[in-house]
Design a protein that fits this description.
This protein is an alpha/beta fold. The protein has two domains: 170 residues, 3-Layer(aba) Sandwich (Peroxisomal Thiolase, Chain A, domain 1), CATH 3.40.47.10; 148 residues, Thiolase/Chalcone synthase (Peroxisomal Thiolase, Chain A, domain 1, 3-Layer(aba) Sandwich), CATH 3.40.47. The chain is 30% helix and 24% strand. The protein contains nine helices and 13 strands. The strands form four sheets. It has a five-stranded mixed beta sheet with strand order 1-7-6-4-5, with helices on both faces. Strands 8-13-12-11 form a four-stranded mixed beta sheet, sandwiched between helices. A two-stranded antiparallel sheet has the order 2-3. The longest helix has 23 residues. The chain binds coenzyme A. The site of coenzyme A has 22 residues, from helix 2, helix 6 and helix 7.
């Protein structure tokens, strides 16, 4: 009988960050901040910044190329490319179209997905539906952002973001491995504009008079409150969905907003913090890039073993949030 619903696994990962590094000490020379305050309160020591000639699609393409190579595939084996980004190259065409072209992935359809910091998690879930239904076999999912381009480098909140991209190739799996559950949500109840880029869209087009509204604006307290409320909710839901407990989790590979958000979340769900992977000290918050860059690093350091239960969780502007569990298959 034809199998209509298939399990889905990750068969390759890749990541790329640009060469230029802005350390906390360097930021002290351009914005009113303090390197020790940044590390102690947010967990960041440095961030990578795209070169003037690098667009989001250039970072995404390199991460994607590495993931395809890691999967043992050629770009022409990819059926679909989804790029999760909040900093597209242009409003048209999509960043994914540029990536398809640059990778010469000539058999792939391609589109962008917008869920800001939760983008990669949402994009993996979309890719999984196509594979489970038998529509596509190999999907390249990329999270890529260049928040340096929407940062006001005169304000102290310039410390939070870095540029980078990560990618994973998703393919079909046997029934004993791969993704076990997804939960995606939007919480608009409280201060949904606590993280926003006010101008440059259809609501408020950029004009000569509102140029400083092209940069992100963040209410740090609102981000903290939302994140530490919704992340535990999503995580507990995927545990309930799968009948697993927090003790079954081998690694948590979360979005990287701030070290305190992750510590608080781990405390609420009862997960020992040594199981929570972090790399924000090196890269800051790369938005769509955080989870796949961290996944790639965790994998390449040999930590992940076949059969490990891995928890993904993310929260971002909107507030988009969600969690997923996967039984690692490589
Ligand atoms: C950022 C965060 C640590 C700030 O904590 P807070 O108590 O809300 O901080 P406030 O903005 O009220 O500032 C309190 C003091 O911290 C210091 N401070 C705040 N931001 C600072 C910065 N960027 N650099 C140096 N010192 C800073 C100042 O001393 C400030 O006092 P002041 O406003 O009188 O100058 C906290 O809100 C947080 O972790 N939020 C989550 C942010 C996040 O994860 N963003 C990811 C992107 S979605």
């Amino acid at each position: 009988m034809k199998q209509l619903i298939r399990n889905v696994k990750i068969i390759g990962t890749g990541s790329y960050v640009p060469e230029t590094i802005y350390t906390n000490e360097y930021l002290e020379t351009i914005v009113p901040t303090n390197s020790q305050w940044i590390y102690e309160n947010v967990g960041i020591r440095a961030r990578h910044i795209a070169a003037p000639n690098q667009a989001t699609s250039d970072l995404a393409t390199e991460a994607g190329r590495r993931a395809i190579e890691d999967a043992g595939l050629a770009p022409t084996d990819i059926d679909l490319i989804i790029v999760a980004t909040a900093t597209p190259d242009r409003k048209a065409p999509s960043t994914a179209a540029f990536v398809q072209h640059k990778l010469k992935a000539t058999n792939a359809a391609a589109f962008d997905l917008a869920a800001v910091c939760s983008g990669f998690l949402f994009a993996m879930s979309v890719a999984s539906q196509y594979i489970a239904a038998g529509v596509y076999n190999n999907i390249l999912v990329i999270g890529a952002d260049t928040f340096s381009r929407i940062t006001d480098w005169t304000r102290r909140d310039a410390i939070f973001f870095g540029d980078g991209a990560g990618a994973a190739v998703l393919s079909s799996a046997n029934v004993t491995e791969g993704f076990l559950a997804y939960r995606l949500y939007i919480d608009t109840i409280e201060n949904m504009l606590g993280f926003t880029v006010p101008a440059g869209g259809s609501e408020t087009p950029l004009t000569a008079d509102n140029l400083n509204e092209q940069y992100f604006q963040m209410d740090g307290k609102a981000v903290f409150k939302s994140a530490t409320t919704v992340l535990p909710k999503a995580i507990n839901q995927v545990l309930t969905d799968t009948g697993l407990t927090v003790n079954d989790i081998d690694f948590m590979i979360p979005h990287q907003p701030s070290i305190r958000i992750l510590q608080k979340t781990a405390e609420i769900i009862g997960l020992p913090f040594e199981k929570v992977m972090t790399n924000m000290d090196k890269y800051a918050n790369t938005t769509g890039g955080t989870i796949p860059i961290l996944l790639d690093e965790t994998r390449r350091t040999g930590k992940l073993k076949k059969g490990d239960i891995v928890l993904f969780a993310a929260v971002g502007s909107g507030w988009t949030y969600g969690a997923a569990l996967i039984k690692w298959a490589l």
